[in-house]
Amino acid sequence: MNAPLRGVVPPVVTPFRDDGTVDIASLTGLVNYLIDAGVHGLFALGSTSEVAYLTDDERDQVLRATVEAAAGRVPVIAGVMDMTTKRVIEQGLRAKELGVDGLVVTVPFYALNDESEIADHFRAVASQTGLPIYAYDVPVRVNRVKLSLPLLMMLANEGVIAGVKDSSGDDVAFRRLVMANRDAGSPLALLTGHELVVDGCLLMGADGVVPGYGNVDPAGYVALFEAAERGDWEAARAEQDRLARGFEIVFAPRGRSGDVTGVGAFKTAMVARGIIPNNVMAFPNRALSEQDAARVSEIVAANGLSK
């Protein structure tokens, strides 16, 4: 990438066929749909992509199809989540070979590393892959480890990381990061994953958003970002409110796991909109029940997003 990543960068859903294999045709169609809606980049193999459930071969399939479909129109960054630094580097080199523009890197999980070891982890991934690195701050997925402000700014000042994808849900910490980044000359692109308060994050100085619900309503997030870019904060707030009403789909499923209530609701809403053909999830997760799916479809219709 020749410029810092900014704008709307949805974490792309991975469609599956009924037999659980990756649906390449539907993924290609989804990539084109998102780009046609005006998104500024694509994040493949994140939580919304169900990356934790994919084999290495399936990860390669997803990246290859995403990069080929994007065809250079927008940058593609790839999640390379794994348990140890060596495994992350291996994932990063595979992704690089497939043509991605940057890597999204968490701290190792299952492994228990201290902050100095985590710093060396990011340094090693950056030096051995040679790609821009976006630190993924997502404590819920990595032993509750929160990337600290001193750590992030140290890595930024060393040129190790190009940006941060913040999914910590800690708006105070994000505000402090925005200020520290600005004081340092803005070496980092700061992307929020807190998709219900994007207007507030952009107002405080975020460079963009990585919204899972952006698979369902990408044009809405593009409109929100464009309103913020022109300083029309009333329009940005109104669009954020509209998106938040649609986001109620994630509260419709009852008694299901966190992965299913989020990604399962997104996929079900995408089916209701005609974006993908089914709401199949990666094994062992099961698609929403007919009752839950009906509730999701009702919310989609109530917000004027049906086919």
Q: What is the average per-residue confidence, as pLDDT, rounded to a whole number?
A: 96
Strand content: 5-15%
Number of strand segments:
8
Shape: globular
The major β-sheet equals: 8 strands, parallel
Radius of gyration: 18 Å
Order of helices and strands: EHEHEHEHEHEHEHEHHHH
Strand order of the largest sheet: 1-8-7-6-5-4-3-2
Helix/strand structural class: alpha/beta
Continuous helix count: 11
- Uncertain segments are none
| CA(first)-CA(last) distance | 35 Å
Helical residues, percent = 40-55%
Set out the fold topology.
Blueprint: E1 7-8, H1 24-36, E2 42-44, H2 56-70, E3 76-79, H3 85-97, E4 102-105, H4 115-129, E5 133-137, H5 149-157, E6 163-166, H6 171-183, E7 189-192, H7 198-204, E8 208-209, H8 218-229, H9 233-246, H10 258-272, H11 290-302
Helix pairs in contact: 1-2, 3-4, 7-9, 8-9, 10-11
Description:
The protein is α/β, with parallel strands linked by helices and 307 residues long. It contains 11 helices and 8 strands. It has an 8-stranded parallel sheet with strand order 1-8-7-6-5-4-3-2. Helix 3 runs parallel beside helix 4 (115-129), helix 7 (198-204) runs antiparallel to helix 9 and helix 8 packs antiparallel against helix 9. It is globular. The two termini are 35 Å apart. 50% of the residues are buried.
